[in-house]
Amino acid sequence: MKLQERLALLVKLGAYLQEDTNERALAIAQTERNNRWLTKANSLTALQSFATEFLNQDHLEAWVKDYPTLKEERSPKRIGLVLAGNIPGVGFHDVLTTFVAGHQSMIKYSEKDQYLIPYMIDFLTKEDPRSATYFMTVPILKDFDAVIATGSNNSAMYFEQYFSKYPNIIRKNRNSIAVLDGTETEEDLLALGADVFAYFGLGCRSVAKLYVPQEYDFSPFLGLMDIHYKELMNHNKYNNNYDYNRSIYLLNNVPHLANDCLMLLEHESLLSRISSVHYEYYKNVEDLEEKLEGTKEQIQCIATKMNLPNRNTLALGQAQHPALNDYADGVDTVQFLIGL
């Protein structure tokens, strides 16, 4: 298939994802039954994001213009994809970029998320049977030419050793942060809430830590979150995590702030427990910059309304809406695939 044919097929997929079909309902139901964190609402949110951000014709055409050599004929390579399963369809961008680059995906799905992406691939192969040669599901990776693997810091150590002889992209744990200056409006704080709570805070783009000025007042934020996100406590797993973590903090006399759905505690780590968000004070912009520089390899994205000249930032509320060129860990996947 030529590049324009692949792009046209992806646009059709974008329209299909927004149709209330039996196939979509089944994939979503299987996903939630298999992993209770991947709820119907969250799967629908993810599919809508794919349709509007990744599979939009204007977005796709603008994206590929940055890579003129994509139009060139190339010998297809077999790309091993080790996908994560922390949020619905989280590995779809890797599958999409491999297809756009004209290579074959050898997909090793996470046991936690193994239905949404096959539902999408099934549409592609039925709509244009020629696309079937671009996708393969495998139980283990072998006979591949390059690898893109996503996992934890522990699994990344294994990946780096196992895949060291092949061109690779190995992704480790990263977390996202928000930087506040105290002038945020109620609208800004509600947008921040979406960055924190979307997908139960399980994504690498979920805000897990706040940087705030000294003497920052958390009361408005906690009050708004209590109003708008308390319903998360109806989810058994989230509720259990909240109760367990709150108990641990109380038993160990860990200072923290809390409402009925979220806990805030002062901590240097960018990785926080489910239902918790860390925070750290900064004295001034220079102090903030020093803190961000020291953790830049652990940060996926930064949400803020502030002007931070040395950082790539997103508006509050946009952390969970990546564009096609918002590459995980800042590594250009398309450039990697073109260079093989």
Please provide a brief summary of the model:
The chain is an alpha/beta fold and 340 residues long.
Give keywords.
globular; 40% helix; 340 residues; Aldehyde Dehydrogenase, Chain A, domain 2; 12 strands; 7-stranded mixed β-sheet; 2 domains; coiled coil; 5-stranded parallel β-sheet; alpha/beta; Acyl-CoA reductase; Aldehyde Dehydrogenase, Chain A, domain 1; 12 helices; NADP; Ald_DH/histidinol_DH
Characterise the protein shown here.
This protein has 340 residues and is α/β, with parallel strands linked by helices. It folds into 2 domains: 171 residues, Aldehyde Dehydrogenase, Chain A, domain 1 (3-Layer(aba) Sandwich), CATH 3.40.605.10; 140 residues, Aldehyde Dehydrogenase, Chain A, domain 2, CATH 3.40.309. 40% of the residues lie in helices and 16% in strands. The strands form 2 sheets. Strands 8-9-10-7-6-11-12 form a 7-stranded mixed β-sheet, with helices on both faces. A 5-stranded parallel β-sheet has the order 3-2-1-4-5, sandwiched between helices. α1 runs antiparallel to α3, α1 packs across α6 and α8 crosses α9. It is globular. It holds the Pfam family LuxC. GO terms for molecular function: acyl-CoA dehydrogenase activity. Keywords: Coiled coil, NADP.
